[in-house]
Structure to design on (204 residues):
DNA sequence: CATCCGATTTCCT
DNA sequence: GGAAATCGGATGG
């Protein structure tokens, strides 16, 4: 199971995202096999991206080197994690939406009291809770091998199992953002999160 | 299945 | 100052 290196992420986000399916991410004593991700393209080109309007303190790490974690806080209580992709300076990233716990079950169970195993990482904020990702991990190099690391699947994922569709909870000016088929998941995996359309925001 | 509402940051106005 | 937020748990039909 080869370790993923920075070169893996230093490519177009739309090439990287589907290849992350089946990859394992290990952090905080738990290993997760990714079953669902979403691509967010670069600054200025993707209205759904946090980096769309350019550099702000929050999205600073998105403009940095590929292979680092962009972890942000939202809805007053949730953390979500992305992996920065290349080319550097473009600020593209892949949101980690769901996965299956393949190691560290005891630790995961303790972090998600009352939740069924299927739900441990079924959704981006549940995923960060199970892996113990938060403010401290923002900017962490996931290719440096220490606190966090990623491993390619033992056997490559069959292309026929990869599905695509619109991103979850994404909408924006112009409306067509919500139709980009930039969500990728593995067909038949119970850990894939239920689809929720984005709420149409109105201009005030 | 649909709706509601939390609890806080971030960034735009 | 204030709306919106890459969401999730609870509750009601």
């Amino acid at each position: 199971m080869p370790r993923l290196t920075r070169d893996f992420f230093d490519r177009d986000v739309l090439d990287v995202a589907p290849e992350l399916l089946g990859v394992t991410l290990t952090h905080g004593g738990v290993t997760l096999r990714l079953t669902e991700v979403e691509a967010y393209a670069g600054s200025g080109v993707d209205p759904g991206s946090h980096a769309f309007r350019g550099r702000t303190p929050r999205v600073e790490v998105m403009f940095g080197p590929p292979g680092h974690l962009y972890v942000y806080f939202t809805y007053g209580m949730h953390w979500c994690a992305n992996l920065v992709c290349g080319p550097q300076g473009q600020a593209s990233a892949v949101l980690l939406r769901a996965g299956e716990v393949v190691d560290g079950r005891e630790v995961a169970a303790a972090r998600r009291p009352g939740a069924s195993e299927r739900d441990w990482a079924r959704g981006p904020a549940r995923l960060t809770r199970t892996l113990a990702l938060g403010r401290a991990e923002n900017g962490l190099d996931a290719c440096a091998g220490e606190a966090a690391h990623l491993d390619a699947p033992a056997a490559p994922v069959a292309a026929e199992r990869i599905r695509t569709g619109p991103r979850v909870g994404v909408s924006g000016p112009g409306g067509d953002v919500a139709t980009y088929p930039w969500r990728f998941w593995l067909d038949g995996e119970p850990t894939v999160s239920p689809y929720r359309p984005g709420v149409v925001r109105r201009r005030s």
